Each structure stands twice: as C-alpha cells, then as structure tokens.
Amino acid sequence: MTRPRNDNFLRALLKEPTDHTPLWLMRQAGRYLPEYCATRRQAGDFLALCKSPGLACEVTLQPVERYDLDAAILFSDILTVPDAMGLGLYFETGEGPRFARPLRDEAAIAALASPPLEKLDYVFQAVTTIRKALNNRIPLIGFSGSPFTLACYMIEGGGSRDFRHIKTMLYARPELLHRVLTVTAEAVIAYLNTQIEAGAQTVMMFDTWGGALSQAAYLEFSLAYMRQIVARLHKTRDGERIPAILFTKGGGLWLEAIADSGCDAIGLDWTVNLGDARRRVGDKVALQGNLDPNVLFAPPEVIAREARKVLDAFGTGNSGHVFNLGHGISQFTPPEHVHALVEAVHDYRNH
Ligand code: CP3
C-alpha cells in the first residue's frame, strides 16, 4: 500500500526527515466549527453522530477542508468501549459524559468482559469510510482511551474532580482495579488492532487522567497497561509501519518511563518545554505538542508568537516533531484564530 501523498506526519512520528513540521489539533472536529454544529443537529445528538459512519466521516473531514492540516483523526469518542461493555453511556447537556451503570461493586467488576467487536462495528465502518474519502491525501489517526482513563469514567460514572471512587479502590482494593484494567486493556488491544485493519495509519492512546496519580500509582495502574497494549498492537499493515502515540496529560515528570514503553511518540501537554523533553527522551521517540489551547483566545499576532516559541523550543532537525495543542481545542475558539495558527506553523517552514 502506498503512503499518503502528504506523509510528513508519519515521517515525523518515525523520526524520518520531513519537508515541514506537520500539524494537527486535538479535537480538531468539534463545536468551535459551525459546520460541525450543523451536522450534529442533523444527527440529533453527539452519540448518534458517532454511531453514523457517514456523518462521522463528514465531520472528520470538516477541519481538513477548512485548514491545511497534515493528519485527520477518526471522529468518535474514547467512551465507545465502556459503552459497548454495557455501562450505558449518555450525555447530559452541558454536563459531559455519564454512565447509567458505573462499576461500583465487586459483582459488577466480576461480570465485566471485553465487548463483542460487532458492537463497535460503526467505528470500524467509519474508519473505512474516512480512508476512502481521504483518498490518500493525508494519514488517518485511530484512537482509544488508556485503560486507566477509561476506568476513571467507568468507576466514577462520569467526569470527576477528585477521583474519589477509583482512588479508594486503587488503595483499598487494588486487585479489583487491576481486574478492571486487565479486561479494559484486552478490549483496547482488539479495538485498536481492528481500527488498524480497517485503515487507521497511526494509533493514539489518550491517558487524560494518568497525571492525577502518584508516580508509583501511574507506573503500576496506567503506564504498565499502556505498555502491554503497545507490545500487542499490529506494528505494520500492508508493509507500512503503524506508529503508536501515548498521551498522558500531566505526565511530564515521567517522560523517561513513557519513552521506554515501546511507543513511537509521546504527546505532551503545555506544561513541558519541548527542548527539555527532547533532551530527556533522546532519540527514542518523537514528540507531539504542545501549545496551550488557551493561546487560541489571544489575537493572531500572539498566536503566531506563541507557536514560534513551541517550534523554537523543539529546535532544529526538522524531524521527530508533530506540532499540536497540549490538549483539546476549546469549543469557544474562534475558527479564524485556528487559521492564524496553521499559517504561523506553515510560515515557520520557510525561515
Ligand atoms: O480529536 C478529534 O477531533 C476526534 C474526536 C474526539 C472526541 N473525543 C470527540 C468529542 C476525541 C479524540 C475524543 C477523546 C476523548 N473523549 C477524551 C480524551 C481526550 C481529552 O480530551 O482528554 C476524553 C476524556 C473523552 C470523553 C469525553 N467526550 C468528554 C469528557 C466529553 C465532554 C467534553 C466536552 O468537550 O463537552 C466528550 C464529548 C465529546 N467528544 C465532544 C466531541 C467533539 C463534544 C460533544 C458534543 O459535540 O456535544
């Protein structure tokens, strides 16, 4: 199989030379785009949008049509996996995700099983549909949540500020949490490998809440499972390498350990200096990040200046860096400010 015509993103992840620093934005398809809001209205709600391969394809392509981006990301959600496990995902307007049946007792945890993949068929169909529509223009990223981050939502029953339920289990009944994580890791391996078979050209694991843990707990309850998953992912598909990216928000203190996990690239939030990160991981992995998404609320000249700071911090070499935000783009971002950012990263190529 041939690589996409613009394969700078894949090259950067594999630390091969690139023409320019590739960029894409976490949550690039979302509510800051009026065309996304229109398609979501047409679908009825967010979950219906995720579950319609045709409409998921449409919103995946929206940011790629508007901006000169170097990668597309599957439109879906990390919570599709626990939903398929029967936890009953729903979204309360303005309140984020909720589970009707969170894992709160031993019986529920004993009954937890990796879901039949047919329940996630809509995701794999979306991947295939998007690959066709992209027509080898740019690569497509598939993704999942990390087992720990998925377990946070499964045990808390939704978002949380203090992670009281999962941390109580972690310290009081660690064997129960390990069972949840083991089952979830099996599900994630099958889920990501099937995305790769359907056409995903890179996979990224979102560990949004790993940074809420102590170092010892992070290594035991989050990174250990991501490491097992990375080891069991398809490494190639039709002769092309499939890079794996790990993103632990708040994981800046543990970069050396993450770089040793077998992943190809580390996603970084904005708290880390990219140059320091590069020195710490050496040439083991590529780096992806790490502009504070709130920079996009400032005027275009400030956006350009801050983007150049990120590029300068990484330094020269023009390989091994994928420009991105340090976390998802806010729904309140003015779409024209994203233009300013993309232009600033592109202009930097020529100086
Ligand atoms: O990057 C992309 O464009 C792909 C789409 C994508 C979504 N969610 C769409 C989405 C991706 C990669 C995710 C991952 C995801 N989902 C994470 C990990 C990344 C991160 O942000 O930390 C997490 C923790 C979730 C769980 C989740 N889904 C939350 C907490 C929320 C509510 C937050 C919010 O912004 O409202 C969602 C809903 C969600 N997922 C939306 C989108 C576009 C907004 C829903 C809507 O349109 O109403």
Could you characterize what this model shows?
This protein has 351 residues and is of the alpha/beta class. It contains 15 helices and eleven strands. It has a single domain (8-348), classed as TIM Barrel, CATH 3.20.20. The protein starts with 7 loop residues before the first helix and ends with a helix. The model has no long low-confidence stretch (mean pLDDT 96). Bound molecules: coproporphyrinogen III (CP3). Coproporphyrinogen III binds at residues 26-31, 40, 46, 73, 75, 77-79, 96-97, 143, 159, 206, 208, 328. Coproporphyrinogen III binds next to strand 3.
What is the total number of structural domains?
A: 1
Measure the end-to-end span.
34 Å
- Mean pLDDT equals 96
Largest sheet: 7 strands, parallel
Q: Any idea what the shape is?
A: globular
Instruction: Tell me which CATH architecture applies here.
Output: Alpha-Beta Barrel
Query: What is the structural class?
Result: alpha/beta
CATH topology heading: TIM Barrel
Query: Residue share in helices?
Result: 40-55%
Beta-strand residue fraction: 5-15%
Biggest sheet strand order reads 1-4-5-8-9-10-11
- The helix-strand sequence is HHHHEHEEHHEHHHEHEEEHEHEHEH
Bound chemical compounds:
coproporphyrinogen III
Q: What is the subunit organization of this protein? A: single chain
Number of helices: 15
